[in-house]
Amino acid sequence: MTVTDERPAAEVGAARRRKEDARLITGRTMWTENVALPGMLHLAILRSPMAHARLVRVDTAPALREPGVVAAFSGRDLPAMGLPCAWPVTEDMVHPDHPALAVDEVRHVGEPVAVVVARDRASAVDALAAVDVEYEPLPVVTDMEQALADGAPLVHRDKGTNKSYTWVFDSAAAGTGGSTEEAFANAPVVLRRRYVQQRLIPSFMEPRSVVADPTGDQYTVWSATQIPHILRFLLSVVTGTPEHKVRVVAPDVGGGFGGKLQVTPEEVIAFAVAQKLGKPVKYTETRSDSLLSAHHGRDQIQDIELAADRDGKVLGLRVKLLANMGAYLGLVTPGVPLLGAFMYNAIYKFPAYRFECTGVFTNTTITDAYRGAGRPEATYAIERIMDELAAELGLDPVEVRRRNWIGHDEFPFTTVAGLTYDSGNYEAATEKALSLFGYDALREEQKRRRESRDRVQLGIGVSTYTEMCGLAPSRVLGSLRYGAGGWETASVRMLPTGKVEVVTGTSPHGQSHETAWSQIVADQLGVAFEDVEVLHGDTRTSHKGLDTYGSRSLAVGGIALVNACQKVIEKAKPVAAHLLECDVNDLEFRGGAFRVRGTPTEEPGKTLADCALAVFAAHDLPDGVEPSLDADATFDPENFSFPHGTHLCAVEVDTETGRVSIRSYVAVDDVGRVVNPLIVEGQVHGGVVQGIAQALFEEAVYDADGNLLTGTFVDYTLPSAADLPDVVSDRTETPAPGHPLGTKGVGEAGTIASTPAVVNAVVDALRPYGVNDIRMPCTPERVWRALQGGAS
């Protein structure tokens, strides 16, 4: 790929180097941990070593005698502040109180019990040992099915149940399809499978950090968060502080992957302590704290049934899901599995569909959004069982998909789950992927290896996916009982010198908004890429927004930005007409300047910089014209965004040791029109790696007593560069209709597609040995054991 350093003919589509990289790569930036304020105190948090216990006594007095300690608090010493859940998915959902600092009971290992405040971090940490806590152990349950059994220990004894909710979608009842009972009763082929989505831990590069600074009745909070606007609103609600007195700043944030889409106990504790002491305080977690107590992801049991005819045409789909909530409900915990409810049908034309999800409390750390949030889980299950259908009927996995997917000429297409897919071309993406992959040649090699009983077998995995992203529109989210909207906002400020400031309601943490937004504005306003500055993440500068998650920033925030630019041009028109001494209706804006229609482009015309200077001086404006070109826009989409693609994976499996090696990986994605191909490739490659990590490496494990056994990177295995293949990536382009740029989301695509591609490849390698599933991660031990048992 050719990197663009000189000004291209069009910025959108150019491979611009990222504006952000200079400060991020050199470390000359501001992270929350870098914030240093006069008189700032430091917090250390004592966490429960027990998964379930009554707090008989929490005595913080001994800690006050330790060197450097200023204060120490238990849950009873601070105001009662329950953490919010913004997604009550059913009317009768069980939603227990979630105190930021435990008061009467602890319900998972790592739950905050006390906080020590000291003049430096080391003194605060050392003083934790002096806090005297007496725990009365209570019964523990960590397994979802055991938690739902009669007589199971209760995570919340006052609730009388470990079930949070059951949510059902039925295509017959919704009027979006037929009856699954009829479909299965008459089906020649019925497959039933159970898949387990293991628990994962978002391993962002920068651990969470928060600084709370009270100044008079004003509070400034710096936080390594994905959601500064939402955090500001909810800190106001939780603490009772007027919202206009709260400012939240998300400086540069070192990754999130959904793991920083949360109102955390630590943020609320820091705010409360700063409020109580009247001094700024800082808390920065260790990596051990992060693995133990930052919210986890996935953790579902998927029972899936597929009905089909003998030609491989699908007739019906049933999904029954158990979703582990953990001990409490986080910000969007209950809704995460429901985002997948609309994606199990994927790109296929199922006539009938039923989905049922039960949320379950256990004595474990809460789960919540993790890259893809519900969509990777759904894609994994459907892509795995489509491979099973192919194996059952002796068909090629790609052919089974071809017989069932939505044709490119069938869009817009309303699915059995009730969503309207606006565009797509699954055929084109798949054909390009097959060609890049050398699919037929690999199948021939696989055949030879099987016939020769080669010790190292070749497996080929297919994943053809789509996803709904651009988390919106507000009315749809409202119908699902989500507590917020899906709109986004942007402002464009024209400076007197013709430079441009953009204020966005999105909040990047690695997504390159400063670069992409500059490219969009440069094209819209006809200014130089270098002349655009993008401001974000500070609620004093950007007072309005819904932040960044769910691949929504470009699909929603990008349109708000385009609309704001168009408003700037409209506001400039009467000024330009006045300068050119012509009628407004005779003007057109092209090539970055206003000209009288029909005037050659070589004629200079009047640029927006000319108009901005004239407005700044305001000496000679037409009557009634406001001396400002600044404009803002808020956009609420009518539909989701639906990127799609085909990912293919070839693995080699050593049948004697169980070792899996990825030999080649091809990803062809359709994310609509591309603003910057460098950014897209980075997002796809990073996403693919996280999906591979779930397939082969990562798993959070608890023992029966609720202790996290994978609390360090020694035990929680992340892949290194040496473990990963070169990813061959390419694109097809089906612009999103109704989007002024034609773009779709890309941030989660690689993660959604890659996990089933890899596991399908591993299982494909071992089918001659009677293996039809291996529970993730497919470690050498699990692969070897599956080979010994014939099937797992």
Task: Write a structural description.
The structure is a single chain. This protein is an alpha+beta fold. It has a domain at 2-28 and 487-635: Aldehyde Oxidoreductase, domain 4 (2-Layer Sandwich). It has 21 helices and 28 strands. The strands form seven sheets. It has a seven-stranded mixed β-sheet. Strand 27 (660-670), helix 19 and strand 28 (727-731) form a beta-alpha-beta unit. Helix 17 (553-580) crosses helix 18 (608-617) and helix 19 (677-696) crosses helix 20 (749-766). The longest helix is centred in the C-terminal third of the chain and has 28 residues, at 553-580. The radius of gyration is 28 Å and the shape is globular. The model has no long low-confidence stretch (mean pLDDT 96).
* Strand residue percentage: 15-25%
Overall form = globular
Strand order of the largest sheet: 3-5-1-12-9-10-11
Multimeric state of these chains? single chain
What's the architecture of the domain at 2-28 and 487-635 in CATH terms? 2-Layer Sandwich
Q: Could you tell me the CATH topology label of the domain at 2-28 and 487-635.
A: Aldehyde Oxidoreductase, domain 4
Work out the number of β strands: 28
Alpha carbon gap, first and last residue: 43 Å
Query: Which regions are unreliable across 5 or more consecutive residues at pLDDT < 50?
Result: none
